[in-house]
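Cross-check.
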Amino acid sequence: MGVETLERGKLDYKFYLNGAIEYLLGQVKENGYISASKDYDYYKPHWMRDSSFVALALLNAASCDMLDSLKRKEALEAAGKIISFDIRVIERYMVNIRYALSLKLEDYDFYTLKAHIPARVGENGEYFKGVIDGRQIDDSVNLGIKNAGLIQNDSIPLVLLAIAKKAELFGLESNEMSFLNENLETLLMYMGKTYITPSGSIWEIYSEYMHAYDAAAIYAAFSAARRLARRGIGKLSEERISEIENGSYKGGPLGFVKDFFISNGILYDTRMPFSDAPLTSLGVDSSTIFIFNRFGISGEMLGNGKIEKDTIREIEEKLFAGNTLPVRFLSDTYFKGGRWLLLGLEFSRYYSAHGKLDKGKEIIDYVLEKYGNSYPEQEIVNPATGIDWEGYLKRNGNNPIQNLAWSYASVIDAIIEFYRASKGQDEFISAKR
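Predicted model, tokenized:
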């Protein structure tokens, strides 16, 4: 099964791949700053999570023989700029990270921006200041609980995943090596502390809940650190990395996910803080797909390979529900409970990597045919609850978030994964040990 050709009337995957890359290249500033979305106030800042997914996609493109050498070179340079920007942000706020390590889990400050890096920053990597939705915003003014949504526990793990991927594919620059040598141990200790706390992530929506996604992202970062150690990168040994990983919970983040988020053979994304059982009332969450591929955790690693299959099937039945794209979860009301392009495309990668090329292709074709080279965050569907988002949507021209950089990155990754799998050259980007 091959990639479709340039023949008129058929989808030319290379055309759309180049278009998505060109868009992202045009958004990355010389210092590596990239808005999550240039068309939506809240996403106009540089968001650490989104930028890391963009960097990973550009690294993927830079290693793909589907593209000409110039495009691959440009993609690699842009990814490097983003990674360098994110490194500078983390270095700027290492004082916060060290403060977090001095606190007890029950301390108030541990749940404030005083003890974490900000999830979004301005053009020089500082706390964001600007106008959002007609209001003057200054994230540096209030660093307390009210800004908990600006704490995202996957920010540092994703930056480390991007660095590790660059190391594996192309090697590291001196600033990247210095960053790891000087900060990796502290960052691992910080991550080892955060995954057992309630999430403060706006991606999770319910910031008072604990999330398997966050713990899995941290697991992936520890795995990446071990891979770097095997390559002789950094000062830490694999033994020291594993010692830190297992310091907060027996079995580390993987054991934590296994022990607290599985119920009746299904991996759920959320549970209440410090409870003994997962909170299953929200049902499955389609973002769980990141756990099974991006973050390198399989059903077998959770104790039963059927867990992965049954979780995927439950998501397909309840959240895809016969549609090509999934909602996040059944009670999601974010932008009226839209169907997420980036989640659907992540499923496409999963399907392609697991030999289900027709299913992977179906999602890609749907997105390309419907949206061309201008990708929103999601499609609007009727809300699952009575919450009224009409006013919210009206302020954005009755549209979902437009031109989301992460959606472009997802298009790149999905096309490349399908291309490689169809050639029998699967190079699935996952956080394998």
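The first strand starts at residue 46 and ends at 47. Residues 1-9, 384-389, 426-433 have pLDDT under 50 and may be disordered. Passed to J.P. for a second look.
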